[in-house]
Structure formats: structure tokens, C-alpha cells
Amino acid sequence: MLPILQRMGRQLDGRPHLLRLGRLMSETVLLKVDAEEYYLFFDRGRLAEIQPGPSRKTPWRFAISTDRAALDEFWRARPRPGFHDIFGLVTIGRARIDGDILALVKNLRFFKEFLALARDEAAA
Amino acid sequence: MTIEPITGRYLRIEVAGTAQRIYVEEAGQGRPVLCLHTAGADSRQWRHLMNDAEVTRDHRLIAFDMPWHGKSLPPEGFETREYLLTTETYIATVLAVAEGLDLDCPLLAGCSMGGRIALQLAALHAGRFSGFIAIEASDFQPAWYDIDWFHRPDAHGGEMGAALVSANISPHAPAAERWNTLWMFMQSGPGVFRGDLSFYTRDDSLLGRLAQIDTARTPVHILVGAYDLTCTPEDARRTAAAIPGATLAVMDELGHFPMSEHPRGFRPFFLDALSRMHPPAGR
Questions:
Q1: What is the 3-state secondary structure (H, E, C) of A35-81?
Q2: How far apart are CA A72 and CA B71, in angstroms?
Q3: Which of A77, A82, A112 sits opposite B163 (nearest CB)?
Q4: Strands B59-64 and A28-33
Q5: What CATH number was assigned to the domain covering residues A2-123?
Q6: Closest residue to B229, CB basis, from A77, A88, A106
Q7: What does the pLDDT read at residue B281?
Q8: Contacting residues for B141 by C-beta, under 8 A, at least 6 apart
Q9: What percent of chain B has pLDDT over 70?
Q10: Which of B258, B197, B200, B201 is nearest to B226 (CA)?
Q11: Domain spans in chain A, listed from the N-terminal domain onward
Q12: Which residues contact A85 (CB under 8 A, 6 or more apart)?
């Protein structure tokens, strides 16, 4: 999982429109995939650091919890219904969003497109 | 160079005592089909069908922007008013537009909140129409989100609204049409999407009216996209089951804005829906 996230961080650096959309996004996001935890430190739209967890001492603004099989389907070029969007994953019971959801919504396009960067790779 | 066959005009009418200037566009000839856009968007959602010669050969498609939307202005004094759409105002607006355009028992095609109000009109004013095509339409769903997110001083409601509704667009939709669809939400006036959602997520009055719909008199066909998270196929199935005689089609590769997000995919379903709208008796 960590190499995928690291690749996504590099892809983000090559997307000027995402860096522009995320210029006010300086938050820590907790991504839980099955039992694994990753703290994603965003700094003005760049993924500055990825810190594998678990950690009881790292504050985060919002968290997405899901499972690897759901993420793999999400990352297909044309996912099945429900797997095509993070809110879809929540709707079908394969993900959960916790924390300051308004912080997510204010940066929703940025974060959705960031999370879908691995989809671009799958489609390539 | 191409000039599209769609033409636009402005209709000045009074709706529930309020003067409104309504933008209306149309294309085609024959049986009139009055088309209603979704929440937070406008009549451009219908542009592909209005440019489809097979559809407009014997159907006159008419789409209008609801007040506050698209090229229809908000009413005088809007600057101090909170926009909250209600079932009563929505019904009055659709009926006033149909009357203002002198439409004789048109078909009514509405998507999302337009589909919801189409079913309300099927229950309460069926005599004014000859059939109902209710797209992404269901009885009621409360919001899983906070509608106030979409009108706040510290964020752009249109951009947040577009990012939210992108969850309802199918991955099969062509990228250009996905973004054209989202652009309308990005352009939506401040508080307008919120005001539409107030109607869509808080008014459950249709629940008790579905059984009143007489499909022998005016057919009802419901269309739903498999990728629609707002009005899911389950929501549409439940709604169709509560309307005796209503028919339903599930569109496997489409989402919540089928006529706009994926026109080629939606086309056969809309043509099929038109074919199910038998002419009114005695006409």
C-alpha cells in the first residue's frame, strides 16, 4: 500500500490543476486500509509526508476507513456501481468517513481526484 | 460551423403572485414534451436530446430554467430572501409555464427533483398532462449530507456541490460530458442548490400520494441509473411498485444525470420511454 501512496504523491506533484485546487489544503488525513493505517500530511496541496501507523499521538482532521479489495475495485477504470466514488463506498458499507467531514467537503474535488490518481495508473 | 436547432425565448408569467421571467428553449415539432432539470442545474441538461433529430422529428422538446436557475432571474427582492423551493411553488411554476406556453396536455419529463415533481403532478394534476417520464425519480430520500454545506460564506457552494454530485455520475460517461454536467452545478447561484435540496430532501408528501396515480389515464415510466447514489435503483423500484401500472427501466451504465452525462447511453432509454406514452384518449 505504501508504494502506491508514494506514487500518488509523486503524481500529485505533476498535476498543476490539483495543486491549484488544493492550495488551501494543509491537513492530516488518516487513511485506514484493513488493519493498516497511513497518515497523509498535505501541505498546500502537496503530499508532504506519509507516516505509516498505527499512532495514538498523531492528530488528524478526517479519516477514510476502507478495505483493500474495495480500493482495488475503486481504482479500476470503470468500477462497479457503488465502488466508483468514496461516498459510494460509504453507501454500500465498504468505507467510513470520520472526523471533520466539512474539511473534506471544502476540499472534496481535490481529495477525490487525489484518491483516484491510482486509477489513472490502472487505466494506463 | 454548426448552428444548433435549439431556440430560446423568455416567458413572463406570474407564479403564486410573484412575477417571474422564465428562460425557455425548445426544438422539434409534434407532441410537446415539457422537460424539467435537476436541482442546482438548468435546462442545458436537455441539450443533447434537443439536438437529436430522431427525437425532435415528431416531438417538440421544451425545457425551461426554474426561477433562480440558469438564465431565469430570481424574483425582485431576492437579495434579502432565502431561496427554499416547496412542492407547492414547484407545481405552480410547472403549471404556469405549461399554460403560458399554451401547451395542450404535454408529456412531462423530469429528472431528479424534476422527476419527483413529475410524480407529484401525476398524482395531483394528471389531467394537465398526457404522460410522465420520471428520471432518477423516487418517493423520498432524506439527505445523508448537510444541505447547509452548499451555502456558506467561507466556501464556494457551487464547487462543493459539483464535487458532491460527481459521486452520482457513471464512470462510463464521456469525460467531456461529465465536466459539462458538473459545470452547471459550479455555476449555480448562491444558495440555489441548497434551496432545491430543501425540497428534495425534506418534503415527503409524495409518499402518501403514489397510489392516487392513475397510469391507465396517464402512463408513468420511471428510469434509473445503476450508478445513481441519490436515487438508487432500489429507491426507484420501491417507488414504481407503489404506483399501480408504472413501468421501470434500470440503466446499467448511467448515473443521476443521464441525458446530460451520457447522451448516447441514455438515448435508447428515452426513445423507449416516449414510445410507451400512448396518446391521450380522444386525441
A1: CEEEEEEEECCEEEEEEECCCCCCCCCEEEEECHHHHHHHCCCCCCC
A2: 43
A3: A112
A4: unpaired
A5: 3.30.1050.10
A6: A88
A7: 57
A8: B201, B230, B231, B235
A9: 99
A10: B258
A11: 2-123
A12: A112, B166, B167, B229
> pLDDT digits over B218-228, tens only?
999 999 999 99
**CA-wise closest residue to B168 among B176, B178, B159, B177:** B178
Amino acid at site B236: A
Retrieve residue B240's grid coordinates. 414504481
Whether this prediction's pTM lies above 0.90 is answered by yes
A98, containing H or E segment? strand A95-99
The radius of gyration of chain A's CA atoms, rounded to the nearest angstrom, is 13
Model pLDDT for residues B143-171, shown as the tens digit of each residue: 888 999 999 999 999 999 999 999 999 99
Pairing, β B59-64 against β B31-36: parallel
Quick check: B170 and A77 CB within 8 A?
no
Report yes or no: B226 at the A interface, CB cutoff 8 Å. yes
Chain B (120-159) residues lying within 8 Å, Cβ to Cβ, of chain A: 144-145, 149, 154-155, 159
What cell does B43 get?
435546462
- What pLDDT, on the 0 to 100 scale, is given for residue A122? 54
Mean pLDDT of B224-238: 97
Q: Which architecture characterizes domain B7-276 according to CATH?
A: 3-Layer(aba) Sandwich (3.40)
Is A87 in contact with B164 (Cβ distance < 8 A)?
Answer: yes
Furthest-apart CA atoms within chain B: distance in Å: 57
Consecutive 10-residue averages of pLDDT for chain A (124 residues): 96 97 97 98 98 93 98 97 98 97 96 93 54
Which residue in B132, B149, B142, B126 sits closest to B34, CA to CA? B132
**Strands of the sheet with A95-99, listed across from one edge:** A46-52, A36-43, A28-33, A62-66, A95-99
Residue of B170, B171, B229 with shortest CB distance to A87: B229
